[in-house]
User: What shape does this take?
Amino acid sequence: MAIKAVFFDMDGVLYDSMPIHAKSWVATFAAEGISFEPKDAYINEGRTGSSTINTVYNRLFGHDATDEDVKRIYGRKTQIVDTFPPAPKMKGMAELITWLRNNNIQTFVVTGSRQPSLVNKLGHDFGFDVDHIISGADVKRGKPDPEPYLIAVERAKVSAADCVVVENAPLGIRASKAADIFTIAVNTGDLEDSYLLNEGADILLGSTEELSEAWRNGELKIES
Assistant: This one.
């Protein structure tokens, strides 16, 4: 397989940020009188904020949240996230991204996040420019729909068969496989491996450090 582009999820793949998001969602929904477990955050990881809120509302009330509900709830979640220190970078990922670029492989970020500071942060930490970031602001449906990864394929100007996705979230894996892209899962969260394998991950590894070392050492078997 001649790899021409690699698409990275952000939370849990580039940054160790999922514990922050899990705690923030739990506190946000608690303020609404809604029970939301940390594991729910990992299961729903990859969705846009509004999609997560609507998923919870449909489960509990049988309908989407109103626009006012979404604005209020997601605004509170953003405020809570901002009270935490910045999430550290995941081990090995800066080295892997540099290695890929040095081997003439395009690199992109595909995330459901809409954080205003996203471009500057990813640019500073990993050298991504705005054209190589597909965020929640760029999509209509978002993960688990394949749309974000199809946009990434289009921007890379290559075939899906020439791409690889790195994901840690079940819904992200579902999205990438629906886009017919080879998918490497790294289980950096609190879910059992089965959550990732059942969505169709082609390779499963236990950490980003393991991924980085194996890929740079030529030990990964990536086959279309």
In short: Residues 12 and 27 are 20 Å apart (CA to CA). The mean pLDDT is 94. The longest strand covers residues 106-110.
